[in-house]
Amino acid sequence: MASAYKPEEARVPPAVELRTPPVTKFKIALCQLSVTTDKERNIQHARKAIEEAAGKGAQLVVLPEIWNSPYLSDSFPVYAEDIEAGGDAAPSFSMLSEAARQLKITIVGGSIPERCGDHLYNTCCVFGTDGHLMGKHRKIHLFDIDIPGKIIFMESKTLTAGQVPTVVDTEVGRIGIGICYDIRFQELAMLYAARGAHLICYPGAFNMTTGPLHWELLQRARAADNQLYVATCSPARDTSAGYIAWGHSTLVGPFGEVLATTEHEETTIVAEIDYSLLELRRTHLPLGKQRRGDLYQLVDLQRLSAQK
Ligand SMILES: NC(=O)CCC(=O)C(=O)O
Q1: What value does the mean pLDDT take over residues 242-246?
Q2: How many A from CA of 232 to the centre of ligand 1?
């Protein structure tokens, strides 16, 4: 249990060496989708975007946060799917699995509202090239904010927070998953880097108040601090929606450089990831070796308790 942690007993496992990824260079697609109130249309629309991205050579396709439903607390229970039941109870999930299998690509399936027993989660599913579910991340940090006169959003009104950080070994490298507000918590990204992630994907729907200030800043910070790739994917902006998304899906490289980005309209970004840059950046700027573990440490509570 996390609460059993005693600092004086902590023996932090060493950071995982960066494993050679299964591919060095590949194309990633970020599908910045328009989302409507029509769930069936959203599913068909996403499927078409995934097919087009695969047609352009993308081996990894990333979708936005909550792409099958409006991003609204009242909509989450209505559009939620029972992923464990599958089939008719989970049409968005089934479409993603089938698309990954038919197109032989890896899919980071954005997120959808998930129903599990009495709980609802904001959940990202990762599918391998055979359509298998390889990982499932339930948003760990719920988006509860109140900026007077600007925006109030309380995900915790309907959603439950996930409990597990998620790193998935895919055919296109080791990928850490976070959902939107998760990007604000640098410890999660540090944890993924310590576990040897090559890339962190954050499906996200930032808002019109924080988006202009923080969206790119946070992505570049997570990438530069941890010397890995960061990919974000937002829904396209719909100014008539109850929640207006900032858009600006982006790919950032391990030097903190924006490699590809867009504005707020519906589009698919296709860009190249070159994992050989990870070693190169870390050689030129050897932060991992220069860390002062004698003064401060990241504690991976999951790994620590697994060792006991
Ligand atoms: N869907 C979200 O988690 C939005 C996060 C956001 O806008 C932020 O400022 O953080």
Answers
A1: 97
A2: 12
